[in-house]
Amino acid sequence: MANMAENVLSIDLQLFELKRQDSLSPAEMRQQAEHIQAAAERIQYPHGITEAMLFLAHLLWADMDFPRASRIIKQAIQLAKNDGALNLLADAYHLSALIHVAKGRYTPALSQWLHCLKLMRCVQEERLYIDVLIGFGNLWTIDQQNEKAQFELKHALEHALRIQSKPLAAKAAICLSREQLKLGHFEEALASLDQAETSLSTLNNPTWLAEIYNYRARAWLALGKPDQAHAHCLHAWQSVANQSHLVWAQCLTLVSLAQIALAKQTNPLEDLNQASHLAEQYHLQFFLSQIALIRSQYAEKQGLWNDALASFKQYRQYDLGELAQHQQQGRRDFSSIQFMRLAQQIEVQREKNANSPQATAPLSTQPHNALPRYVWLQRLTSYTTQNTEYGVVFIRLPSHSEHFPAQRKMYLLAAMCTEHSVFCQYAANLYAIAIPTTTEKRFAQYQDNLRRVLTILPLDTKDVGIAATLGRPGQTLHELITQIETPLFAERV
Hints:
This protein has about 500 residues and is mainly alpha-helical. Among the domains are: about 220-320; about 375-490, 2-Layer Sandwich (Alpha-Beta Plaits), CATH 3.30.70.270. It contains 22 helices and 4 strands. The protein has helices spanning about 10-20, 25-40, 45-60, 65-85, 85-100, 105-125, 125-140, 145-160, 165-180, 185-200, 205-220, 225-240, 245-265, 270-280, 285-300, 305-320, 320-335, 335-355, 375-385, 405-415, 440-455, 475-490, and strands at about 390-395, 420-425, 430-435, 465-470. Strands 2-3-1-4 form a 4-stranded antiparallel β-sheet, sandwiched between helices. Helix 13 packs parallel to helix 15 (about 285-300). The chain starts with 7 loop residues before the first helix and ends with a helix.
């Protein structure tokens, strides 16, 4: 990531870039997130700090570093509350729920999801809602409530396809196929995996691709076609074999290859030994259990009864170890009154969210055209999908002015807006205006008027900046911010 001047928009642009990176290892992405967080802290940009922290916590969750992820999320929740960033707060609650699920603490997970859903009445973030649905589906899978799990995952897939979110569609379809495989619905699993591969075709995610080929291989193996299964497994191995950070996908593929070798009555030990080495090195308990079971089955086929018994005992030891404790805690949670009460409250909240219009956070002391930042960004994003030109203006005002305290600045910005435009306080002393429909000529005149107004106001002009761009159909939010960033912090009115 190239070095950029440190300001609010440069931090946002770095976060944009990091989130769409697909060539960095998890360790490199963590390093970048920490670098961005430090830069945001240096300029005292709370929203940037919180967003970088949440991205880092998500990476740590994926790497199963739950203690550190939990500590970061607690800090992020407090920062988001202080900053009024309800979208980031909802995201933090969701991520906290995922970590509780990973720890086998299902009642606290539901509590965090309930907080998240309550915020969604204001936030209306469809992508986050889909991710929550996937979380619900995976939770009901743990409790072996298969019908509920499939319902949530199918619902998530339908939503993702409707809003054309390929990453979420792929994620939902992969989770759904995993559930269908467990239930023995192999043809349905293959259809879900085809959908996942279609959604993943323009994305670079070798882990998900490996999952697709592995689950497809297991479906074909269950349908009595080991040669087809083997071909898919080899495809999976080619996508992850040389990626040192994709250990989980490598273990998954090696175990699948061993299962296929066992079915074809060939020797699975080479694949098992390699998988065992990785699983022991990285403490992947789930794979160690599967490896021991396949060793036992192979030894039994060879008539090596002592080896078969020893491996089976090892399998039972793994199976009754951490995973069994995890499931035992789950059974206590799932049958508790508090868990069932939370599940009911979540259903009621989902009904409210579905049947009532968006309830934006109140800004009773603010002008009628002032929006919270996250709502303003949603509005601007909707403008990018329309077929007309639209205007975006950012204005930087002095931090201290006896003539213009914070409340007066808001009304000043309200007066600067055109009839149908909306604005927000984007960050401390930084304001943004979005004009839904305009022309190049009208927008240029509007900018001239703004500059004249700012020059005659009793403001310290060395701390005042203005930058504007005329949005074209199809432009992304990242492109708009890029066009604004340099002139905003270079220009003096």
